[in-house]
Design brief:
The protein starts with a helix and ends with a helix. The mean pLDDT is 84. It has a single domain, classed as Na+/H+ antiporter like fold. The chain is mostly helical. Helix 6 (90-120) packs antiparallel against helix 7 (130-154). The protein is built from 13 helices and no strands.
């Protein structure tokens, strides 16, 4: 299971690197406010929302801790695919995914440990070993992203030939891994869905609204706001599962993490449908 999860995260991060264009990055950096807003929401706003929801779920510690791990795991290429479907700012989406992917090598254990302390206290013994976690994430996140970016920069024609097959392979591996984990942890999923699903629905909707309305307060256009809201809402499920099962050694958290998948897909696809068919949030409200 650990090998499957590691391979899944590696492939997703490699796909992100393949999609990243230095030219897109340079264009965005001429007016970097959307990048800064997206990073601020992802690394400050989302953890605060997760901590708040987890605090109210202290009597259901498995759900509370699962939400913290989800918040600590920024998104992957699935987020980019939904932005592409909605015809929003795919350049911003990919750039945020790459930057958050690189940052999460260090931010993931920090966010997770801070959440664990808030929920369980300093004396609970519940913590991700920082050095071991960083070392683990370096190999499955940083290295594949760098390889993908390097290939895209120096061998773009080769990347064009392999990109579609690589994305299909990553999607197949992601779906297969989640299905296997779902079967293995079916009892935990069934036992915890009544507590987990309502909390995950609140968490998912809160992240979408946070992304949209903070972007509006920052005077960003709707296409930027959608890309940011989508990016901060969709998190890396295999990474959260890997931290729960292999690093934290708490497989009982897998049930709530897996239930996050249908919840967030329903939320973000509805958001994408409304945005795409009304060509922006303003017309949705009108």
């Amino acid at each position: 299971m650990q090998t499957l999860l590691s391979a899944c995260v590696f492939m997703m991060m490699f796909c992100i690197g393949l999609d990243f264009s230095c030219a897109q990055w340079l264009r965005l950096m001429r007016s970097p406010r959307p990048i800064f807003v997206g990073l601020l929401i992802q690394n400050v706003g989302v953890p605060l929302v997760a901590f708040g929801i987890a605090w109210f779920l202290k009597d259901s510690p498995e759900v509370a801790l699962a939400i913290i791990l989800i918040a600590a795991s920024p998104g992957g290429p699935v987020a980019n695919a939904i932005v592409h479907y909605a015809k929003a700012r795919i350049d911003l989406s990919i750039s945020l995914t790459v930057i958050n992917g690189l940052l999460c090598v260090f931010t993931a254990p920090l966010i997770a440990d801070l959440g664990f302390v808030l929920i369980s206290g300093k004396d609970s013994g519940l913590a991700l070993p920082f050095a071991d976690t960083v070392k683990h994430l370096l190999f499955i996140i940083l290295i594949p992203i760098v390889i993908g970016i390097t290939l895209n920069q120096f061998a773009p024609r080769a990347v064009q030939r392999i990109r579609q097959a690589t994305h299909h392979s990553a999607l197949f591996l992601l779906v297969g891994t989640i299905l296997i984990i779902l079967v293995v942890n079916r009892d935990a999923v069934y036992a915890g869905y009544q507590d987990a699903v309502p909390a995950l629905v609140v968490f998912s909707i809160a992240m979408v609204f946070l992304g949209v309305y903070v972007s509006r307060l920052s005077n960003l256009a709707d296409d930027f706001g959608f890309a940011i809201a989508n990016e901060v809402s969709i998190h890396n499920v295999p990474l959260a599962l890997l931290m729960a099962n292999s690093i934290l050694n708490k497989p009982e958290l897998s049930g709530a993490i897996i239930l996050y998948v249908p919840v967030i897909f329903s939320t973000t696809l509805l958001n994408a449908y409304l945005y795409k068919n009304h060509r922006g949030y303003s017309k949705v409200e009108a």
